[in-house]
Amino acid sequence: MASLTVIHKGGGALDVSVDIANSGRVSGTEVVQVYVVDPVMLYVRPWKRLLAFARVTLEPSASRRVTIAVTPAELAFQDDSSAVGVSRVVPGEYTIRVGPSSVTDTLVATVRVAL
Known about the structure:
By secondary structure, the chain is mainly beta. It has 1 helix and 9 strands; from the N terminus they run βββββαββββ. A hairpin with a 6-residue loop joins β6 (77-79) and β7. This is beta-glucosidase.
């Protein structure tokens, strides 16, 4: 995986794109996983969250650009500080991490989310 780009489309919606290639001699499948590190820890939540993923199968020597859409609902978290517990997206700078697993999410980009 290479060439990570993250585009904020407004309201917390993101397009996360990455190039993926199969350098082998047989068809192969890879899972592209998108993680987020939240801008501020105002509320207790995991340090890093899995937002979305895509399973990509490529023929030998093939490559392609994969774009994964992240919705505001996926970026949001449950705010338990109110009686009704609403979901919200916190404005700020988010770190997006992409890779085949949470341990190997070595592609990193930051994006500023303003609502």
